[in-house]
Amino acid sequence: MIGTMGWKKFSSRTVYENDWMAVREDHVRNPGGGENQYGYVHFKNIAVAILPLDNEDHTWLVGQSRYTLGEYSWELPMGGAPRDEAPVTAAQRELAEETGLRANDWQELMRLHTSNSITDEQAIVFVATDLAMGNTALEESEDISTRRLHIDTAIEMAARGEITDAISVAALLRVGLMRRGES
Questions:
Q1: Residue 3 lies in a domain
Q2: Phi and psi dihedrals of 41, rounded to 5?
Q3: Which of 78, 97, 128, 182 lies 20 to 30 Å from 139 when distance is taken between CA atoms?
Q4: Which residues pair with 122 in a beta bridge?
Q5: Domain of 93?
Q6: Nearest-CA neighbor of 47 among 24, 75, 9?
Q7: Cα 101 from Cα 76, distance rounded (Å)
Q8: Which residues pair with 97 in a beta bridge?
Q9: Is residue 22 part of a domain?
């Protein structure tokens, strides 16, 4: 992909790496002809987010402390899909782990890039319906609380800035537009 659209990559090196991501630094020629270093974060997984929706138009948000922000965040259930796993399979696992919900119907809502000037992260959002409740299976690093609320309330929270996670905001506002017949 790099090498098209006016960019040319000469070399690349990994500056830092762990199980989830790598920080890379590429020596490039930019579209203006100058040469420079371009640093970015490569994610090893695809982000998957789930907007569960029951037959009474309720959804579930998960709340957790986000270390990077030093803040508590309400957002859609989400996690990572290894690149060799079907994203919907990972979404099913993440929904069950974080909320205890299982869904019989899965529809892809959207695909997006979260911050494409500094990362190659890809995200896929699913709407999950025909829900049944089960048990959660939180990971050691997760201190999650769940909140069931009407989908319109969640959309309003995103519109008011009470939900700031980019994937969650995009998905909720998209559903809001769809419910108004605008998308």
A1: no
A2: -105, 125
A3: 128
A4: 113
A5: 45-179
A6: 75
A7: 13
A8: none
A9: yes
Q: How far apart are the first and last CA of the chain?
A: 30
pTM score, two decimals? 0.89
Number of domains into which the chain is organized: 2
Kindly report, residue by residue over 24-79, the tens digit of the pLDDT.
Answer: 999 999 999 999 999 999 999 999 999 999 999 999 999 988 888 899 999 999 99
How far apart are the C-alpha atoms of 50 and 95, rounded to whole Å? Answer: 7
**What does DSSP assign to residue 54?**
-
Clarify whether residues 76 and 163 are in a common domain. yes
Q: Which single residue is written with the structure tokens 């769940």?
A: 146
Helix (H, G, I), strand (E, B) or coil at 137: coil
Distance (Å, whole) CA 33 – CA 40: 20
Place of tokens 């996690």: 79
* Beta strands across the sheet bearing 78-82: 78-82, 45-52, 122-133, 101-113
Q: Cβ neighbours of residue 148 under 8 Å, at least 6 residues apart?
A: 58, 59, 60
The enclosing H or E element of 96 equals helix 87-99
Q: Is residue 110 part of a domain?
A: yes
Amino acid found at 16: Y
